[in-house]
């Protein structure tokens, strides 16, 4: 199931669904401006499933890999 | 007396603005979660009270510090709300603004951090914003004091003309709007004392599943609301409300947005982050920055300044005091108390002020720059491994200043069990009170590697804290937490006055304690060392301090302690860790540090000295910390547990290091 | 004379120290919280100002 679209070359993502996340995490993401349909830019991804730095609305946010994975639709 | 509540998202510069508007100083940092408790100040040149509240994203609280803000709105009855926003991230910030505007309490909106906005391609037209939001809008930049005077005048003016425009009413979709109207009527019938705007706001918050409001409705028996919970939730009102707000915000911003002709892109943050958040270099840079901090405090600036102070205090000052007291014919007993007790003990501790202040200046500079959020990021992998929330890192770092504030800073953690674990491990962070004793011992035994030895103690504290956290995680069956989200604020060039204020704010407690706790501890230890069960003694070996110390000495022999004086000093250290140093100076009957350092070389080896420092780092937290643990966990049991467990850990580890070390050294 | 003064000073120091030690044990009142102490002080200051105005 393809839940995200990825621009070629640049790490630009659009989140589509938050169904895999628990309600608390969804609420926290909403507060930081990340909701279904948000445009995210991946600034930096740490190796071995470490944290990911994203940019949303000119604000940089770091989150852990499992949440990032859920945002872009991976298991 | 009028009250203004300061509300806004985290890290929008509320506290900086608070400091500019009031004539008092509060703790500021360029990272999320610095204010965890409300703070009141007096608006300059007025009799108005300003209340600085913790940063919140919404009135629906997820953490204990966020609940402080919502509770305050329910019970504090502010006359005016000053909503502080980050002008560069208005889209997200306005979500809270709408919630505040719906409350019917007059709102002044401050678009703060205008300098960040100048770097973006768009600006906002303030009159358009004011028109759409039905409130006053002012642009400020608290860091450069821009717009502060106008805001100050505007606040006073708004308070005088309390009849302001009515609460903001958003066009909620039909089912929601209908339910709001119907419930408002029902509530007004049963509770006519509630103002109409407040009732409407209460209903909207209730529908949006705000737990604090739901608890409030239960307590107040607002049955018109409580009976409809299921109906509201089934129709997904929360979602409708959120979407309506979002649409309104987008429309408002669209109307107010203007192109920025003088855009000045600032690449500073990206340039620094290229190195600082680098996957491989991040951790070495983190360690390097801390090493530099200790190098400055112990080798380059702090210790030389401290030595000068000590030479002056133990030389001319002590001689003059002795001379004056003798010429006045003071009783020898009193003269000894004043000079050998208070002057040497309290003064001896005060000579460490330079080291402590240099260290605090470094920490303040880091906090003001925005680095701390990055430190939390690069260490998150470690936190994840031991099953802790990345947010736990922030209270731990604050604990380097004082464990009391560290324990209080755990309020930003959502999960109660994670919060408890962080509270329990916080006292292992090496607070400033322990610095004097480190400084004393490293000067005597490790003069060439002072910074490295102290750094190792700080890191040992962190390692013990993390290991304990892992054990607690297993014991409490904590689920692995994946909820780490942290905003990375833009870097600021640290402002000198904020660094100086921050340094003073953290360090003043230490100076103040010299006149209170350390003074009391010094008098107590002096009395114990000059009295026995049968009255005054001249031979300290017969004193109460000696009796007590000798009784417990066998317990400390396995960790290399050979003198009862050290044991007695450790006992008094429970009152406050600084007292250990003062007590040692008094008990060894020496004038100041230089003589004490010489005495130590006969009593300790480098190994046993290090073990003693490890013990002091980890053993029973001071009384203030224990009291805070009790207040924050709401249980005496955890306080007693914290005291007991840390003693056992300190003892076990110190003995282990000594015994293993003895095999090799 | 100096003996009396000495004894008085000694008593004052002992009472001062005893009060401080008592305070340490009473810390739980504010939980050692600097913000609470600070808030109490501001409230008192504002109350005093209001009284003065009346």
Automatic annotation (TrEMBL), chain A:
GO molecular function, one term: transition metal ion binding
Domain of life of the organism encoding this protein: Bacteria
Keywords linked to the UniProt accession: Iron
Coiled coil: none
Gene3D superfamilies registered for this protein in UniProt: 2.30.30.90
Domain Ferrous iron transporter FeoA-like intervals: 8-75
Record flagged with keyword Isomerase: no
Pfam families referenced in this protein's UniProt entry, alphabetically: FeoA
KW Isomerase (keyword) present: no
Protein name (record): Ferrous iron transporter FeoA-like domain-containing protein
UniProtKB/TrEMBL annotation, chain B:
Alphabetic keyword roster: Cell membrane, GTP-binding, Ion transport, Iron, Iron transport, Magnesium, Membrane, Metal-binding, Nucleotide-binding, Transmembrane, Transmembrane helix, Transport
Residues binding GTP: 8-15, 33-37, 52-55, 112-115
Binding-site list for Mg(2+) 2: 19
GO molecular function: ferrous iron transmembrane transporter activity; GTP binding; metal ion binding
Topology within the bilayer: Multi-pass membrane protein
Pfam families: FeoB_C, FeoB_Cyto, FeoB_N, Gate
Positions of the FeoB-type G domain: 1-161
Signal peptide: none
Localization per record: Cell membrane
One GO CC term on file: plasma membrane
Chain sites annotated for binding Mg(2+) 1: 22
Membrane-spanning ranges: 275-294, 342-366, 386-408, 420-446, 452-472, 514-531, 607-626, 638-660
NCBIfam families reported in the protein's UniProt record: feoB
Protein purpose: Probable transporter of a GTP-driven Fe(2+) uptake system.
Family: Belongs to the TRAFAC class TrmE-Era-EngA-EngB-Septin-like GTPase superfamily. FeoB GTPase (TC 9.A.8) family.
UniProt-listed PANTHER family: FE(2+) TRANSPORTER FEOB (PTHR43185:SF1), FERROUS IRON TRANSPORT PROTEIN B (PTHR43185)
Protein name (record): Ferrous iron transport protein B
The organism of origin for this protein: Levilactobacillus spicheri DSM 15429
Automatic annotation (TrEMBL), chain C:
Protein name, as recorded: FeoB-associated Cys-rich membrane protein
């Amino acid at each position: 199931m393809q839940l995200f679209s990825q621009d070629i070359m640049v790490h630009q993502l659009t989140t589509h669904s938050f169904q895999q996340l628990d309600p608390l995490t969804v609420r926290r993401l909403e507060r930081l401006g990340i909701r279904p349909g948000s445009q995210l830019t991946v600034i930096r991804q740490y190796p071995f499933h470490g944290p990911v730095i994203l940019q949303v609305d000119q604000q940089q946010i770091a989150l852990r890999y499992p949440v990032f994975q859920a945002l872009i639709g991976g298991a | 007396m009028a009250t203004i509540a300061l509300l806004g998202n985290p890290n929008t510069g509320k506290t900086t603005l608070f400091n500019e508007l009031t004539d008092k100083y509060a703790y500021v940092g360029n990272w999320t979660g610095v204010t965890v408790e409300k703070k009141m100040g007096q608006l300059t040149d007025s009799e108005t009270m300003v209340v600085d509240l913790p940063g919140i994203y919404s009135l629906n609280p997820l953490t204990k510090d966020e609940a402080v803000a919502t509770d305050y709105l329910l019970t504090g009855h502010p006359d005016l709300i000053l909503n502080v926003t980050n002008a560069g991230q208005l889209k997200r910030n306005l979500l809270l603004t709408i919630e505040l505007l719906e409350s019917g309490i007059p709102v002044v909106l401050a678009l703060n951090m205008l300098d960040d906005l100048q770097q973006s391609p768009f600006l906002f037209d303030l009159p358009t914003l004011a028109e759409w939001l039905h409130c006053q809008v002012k642009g400020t930049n608290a860091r450069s004091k821009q717009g502060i005077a106008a805001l100050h005048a505007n606040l006073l003016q708004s308070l005088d003309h309390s009849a302001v425009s009515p609460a903001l009413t958003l066009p909620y979709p039909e089912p929601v709007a209908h339910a709001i109207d119907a419930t408002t009527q029902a509530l007004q019938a049963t509770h006519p004392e509630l103002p109409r705007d407040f009732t409407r706001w209460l209903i909207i918050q209730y529908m949006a599943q705000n737990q604090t409001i739901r608890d409030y409705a239960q307590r107040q028996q607002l049955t018109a609301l409580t009976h409809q919970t299921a109906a509201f939730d089934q129709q997904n009102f929360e979602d409708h409300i959120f979407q309506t707000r979002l649409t309104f915000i987008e429309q408002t911003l669209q109307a107010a947005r203007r192109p920025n002709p003088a855009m000045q892109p600032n690449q500073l943050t990206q340039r620094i982050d290229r190195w600082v958040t680098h996957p491989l270099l991040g951790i070495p840079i983190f360690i390097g920055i801390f090493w530099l901090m200790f190098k400055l405090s112990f080798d380059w600036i702090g210790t030389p300044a401290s030595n000068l102070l000590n030479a002056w205090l133990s030389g001319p000052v002590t001689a003059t005091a002795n001379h004056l007291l003798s010429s006045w014919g003071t009783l020898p007993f009193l003269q000894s108390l004043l000079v050998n007790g208070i002057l040497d003990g309290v003064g001896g501790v005060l000579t460490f002020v330079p080291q402590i202040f240099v260290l605090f200046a470094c920490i303040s500079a880091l906090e003001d720059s925005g680095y701390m959020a990055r430190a939390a990021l690069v260490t998150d992998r470690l936190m994840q491994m031991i099953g802790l929330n990345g947010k736990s890192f922030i209270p731990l770092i604050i604990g380097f200043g004082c464990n009391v504030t560290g324990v209080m800073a755990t309020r930003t953690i959502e999960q109660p069990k994670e919060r408890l674990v962080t509270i329990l491990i916080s006292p292992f962070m090496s607070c400033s009170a322990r610095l004097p004793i480190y400084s004393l011992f490293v000067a005597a035994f490790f003069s060439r590697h002072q910074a490295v030895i102290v750094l190792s103690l700080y890191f040992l504290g962190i390692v013990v804290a993390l290991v304990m956290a892992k054990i607690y995680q297993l014991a409490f069956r904590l689920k692995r937490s994946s909820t780490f989200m942290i905003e990375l604020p833009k870097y600021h060039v640290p402002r000198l006055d904020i660094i100086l204020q921050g340094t003073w704010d953290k360090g003043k407690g230490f100076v103040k304690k010299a006149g209170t706790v350390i003074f009391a501890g010094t008098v107590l230890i002096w009395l114990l060392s000059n009295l026995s069960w049968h009255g005054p003694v001249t031979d300290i070996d017969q004193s109460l301090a000696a009796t007590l110390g000798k009784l417990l000495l066998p317990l400390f022999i396995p960790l290399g302690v050979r003198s009862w004086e050290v044991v007695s000093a450790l006992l008094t250290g429970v009152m406050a860790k600084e007292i250990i140093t003062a007590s040692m100076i008094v008990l060894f009957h020496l004038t100041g540090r230089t003589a004490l350092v010489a005495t130590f070389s006969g009593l300790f080896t480098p190994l046993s000295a290090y073990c003693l420092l490890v013990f002091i780092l980890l053993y029973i937290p001071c009384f203030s910390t224990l009291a805070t643990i009790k207040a924050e966990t709401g249980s005496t049991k955890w306080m007693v547990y914290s005291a007991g467990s840390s003693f056992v850990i300190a003892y076990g580890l110190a003995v282990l290091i000594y015994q293993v070390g003895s095999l090799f050294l | 004379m100096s003996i009396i003064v000495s004894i008085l000073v000694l008593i004052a120091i002992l009472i001062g120290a005893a009060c401080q030690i008592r305070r340490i044990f009473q810390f739980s009142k504010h939980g050692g919280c600097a913000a609470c102490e600070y808030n109490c002080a501001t409230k008192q200051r504002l109350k005093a100002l209001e009284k003065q105005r009346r």
